[in-house]
User: What shape does this take?
Amino acid sequence: MKTTIALMGAGGKMGCRLTDNLKDHPDYEILYIEVSEAGRVRMAEKGVSPTAQEEALSRAQVVVLAVPDALIGRISAGIVPLLNPGTVVMGLDPAAGYAGVFPERTDITYFAAHPCHPPLFMEELTREAQTDWFGGYHARQSVVCALIQGPEEHYALGERIAGAMYAPILRMHRITVEQMAILEPGVVETTCATLVSGMKQALDEAIRMGVPEAAAWDFVMGHIRIELAIIFGYAGFPFSDGAKLAIEQAQSKIFQPDWKQNVLSLEAIREQVLAITHKEG
Assistant: This one.
């Protein structure tokens, strides 16, 4: 028997990605909810049509929220009271669950699943897989899942659906919603994306200082690759003594001494997810 899934925001960027993997899946009946005209045009291009929200929610066993974090509180407040007991509500990242923006209702399940995206160091043979940056089409990726509330059997259901949404799959990981929030936004957005942004700023500054752009690009891209391989243990050899000295001398100039406490403590992470969901602490 097929599981009926209502996909909210089906015509959005994320909704369209999920539609590509779910619309022909033999295990699921997908009901598409989309309010914007532009989103409905994108749905039509994929050969699917919307279902009225009231009808879709009344039939759904699972509701997937492919909507912006800042809107989840308002949207979930409007739809959760309409759901049948036992319905699974799936968020696509931990922010809403960790910030506590979902309405209180003990007879439904809240579940979160987020893709890890294709790993930097992978053995993909096809060009399509190598350039599938986000994942979900050609390159394998892992997924993290968390049961926020609900019965244990609903974890297995949520994990199966997450595997279908983000296929092809490398590994599935079960973690808590707090651990998911530590990873995102804490590690990968607040920390890693900021550091990568700094790397790009340094490259731009070298070009501004007169280094030819093509030479600077090739030099930096090659060095980033080997530096990541060394730091994350793939290369099998250490930095040179000169590089070690440069790192040691630059640490105090680039990083604040208490930066981990400021961005990776649970208090800091809670502040980040409250800001993402626009919920006051």
Q: What stands out?
A: The mean pLDDT is 96.
